[in-house]
Amino acid sequence: xxxxxxxxxxxxxxxxxxxxxxxxxxxxxxxxxxxxxxxxxxxxxxxxxxxxxxxxxxxxxxxxxxxxxxxxxxxxxxxxxxxxxxxxxxxxxxxxxxxxxxxxxxxxxxxxxxxxxxxxxxxxxxxxxxxxxxxxxxxxxxxxxxxxxxxxxxxxxxxxxxxxxxxxxxxxxxxxxxxxxxxxxxxxxxxxxxxxxxxxxxxxxxxxxxxxxxxxxxxxxxxxxxxxxxxxxxxxxxxxxxxxxxxxxxxxxxxxxxxxxxxxxxxxxxxxxxxxxxxxxxxxxxxxxxxxxxxxxxxxxxxxxxxxxxxxxxxxxxxxxxxxxxxxxxxxxxxxxxxxxxxxxxxxxxxxxxxxxxxxxxxxxxxxxxxxxxxxxxxxxxxxxxxxxxxxxxxxxxxxxxxxxxxxxxxxxxxxxxxxxxxxxxxxxxxxxxxxxxxxxxxxxxxxxxxxxxxxxxxxxxxxxxxxxxxxxxxxxxxxxxxxxxxxxxxxxxxxx
Length: 497
Fold this sequence. Notes:
This protein is mostly helical.
């Protein structure tokens, strides 16, 4: 008997164990946590990495956006590959590749290598994440179990970003910024070994075509859009420069071409049958806008705590810990409420709470007390995002054919990553413009950090973040009409009403 035969025989012998799928969920959750927190784990470590590698202020954001862009831009292709080649197989390949890219980034000796490694992490995350979510979708079909499984996923998605800030602060302060990347290696290896035994393979049998032109056009369009925002943030370039306008126009052309290719392709990267369902379309749009606003909190609150209040990297991470804890606790509550209330009411309440929480940050000052002012906003946002993410994750995949499970989960992940990437670049640009205008209007020196100008910039960024979350609220209110779930043959489906 070959080694492969022995492994298959062992898997079959434990297939019927009722707890196996929950152990598999634990493995998937570990991998998902690694992917999510890597979007923010370098945020606090970035000042140290920038100094160590000699990265300019204009280019430092690429340590974040190189990851989120590659991740979000290639998620659709990664989801389709997982559907066709096998979700377990691509899950394991993604783990190994992510570990290798993390090793390269941890050993980087210059900014270009770090940015390249972060982009490579995003490429393998684009394979890993949709495979993980679609494995949950095809493993848990009973409504209560699926609700619990998505509660775990929602807690990881919502809390992982904050955990990344805490972990980044601790590793930067007590070890090195490099460990913010190297820590992924042992995590990925443990998940790989456990996943080999516990996770069951599944794949689509509909076809094997890949929409390479669509992947190129979509990713190029997103990169062009973010780079246009980056150029606009530079004081010597601005919004009205030929270069900035050229990148933004190019992004519009490329993304329009992407849509046209998808409509005509025989094997589209983004099938319209997945996107144009009213409930799924509404949740995807809400996810895109909400995560764009969420990154406003992580990015600028991190800078505010360190630059204005003088917190250390670790203390800044701990100051955001209540957000992570609130998401985890509230996700459990949301999972028990969702089957009874349906997705729409919880999503609307959650978005309203998140917007109010973020709005409290628009009045922070250099003398603001964290416990009295920042903490309440964090808790409101954390509970709000938990109430949003649990039903959103479930509704976005409800009623999807098993053959489309990978691409549907990829769209959901993509909206979160693309939203975060676009939110980071857009809000950073608006922040920089607000700071420059404040410096000029108040006749201040623009060569050094000015606390008052920075506070003004934070207010603008947080305010725009509130608007983005408010638009997400409108998207759910207008487009989503699934108020409750109907269970048929163990499979949850939305009831319109």
